Amino acid sequence: MTGPAVPVVSVAQLPADAALLDVRESDEWAAGHAPGASHLPMSELAGRIHELPDEDPLYVVCRSGGRSARVVAYLAGQGYPAVNVEGGMLAWAGQGREVVADGGAEPQIV
């Protein structure tokens, strides 16, 4: 059983100025994330929804696309325009896009 279809975009189709929201947990974010992305873990989203960037649309990313798809479906139900980034950060890194880590560590997608 699957939920409602959510809007999806591939990393290659992401606009250069896309507002990215990374919904992975803090340890995943610290290990490696897209520069300029916002971070709001999926586990904290409902209580912190007021912290969402005011962007239209908001491109949501996780490790591989599963959690972000659930977040996009949730946000759509709340009236937020959101799009799932297909393949997540694994696809982002696989396309050779920049990844940065907290504290100057070697960035990696975990």
From TrEMBL:
**CDD domains from the entry?**
RHOD (cd00158)
Source species, domain of life: Bacteria
Q: Which UniProt keywords apply?
A: Transferase
Molecular function GO labels: transferase activity
Residue ranges constituting the Rhodanese domain according to the UniProt record: 14-101
Does the keyword Lyase feature in the UniProt annotation?
no
InterPro entries with a match to the protein in the record: GlpE_sulfurtransferase (IPR050229), Rhodanese-like_dom (IPR001763), Rhodanese-like_dom_sf (IPR036873)
Can the keyword Transferase be found in this entry's annotation?
yes
Q: Which PANTHER family match?
A: FAD-DEPENDENT OXIDOREDUCTASE, SULFURTRANSFERASE YTWF-RELATED
Record's protein name: Rhodanese-related sulfurtransferase
Q: What organism is the protein native to?
A: Pseudonocardia kunmingensis
Lineage per the UniProt record: Bacteria, Bacillati, Actinomycetota, Actinomycetes, Pseudonocardiales
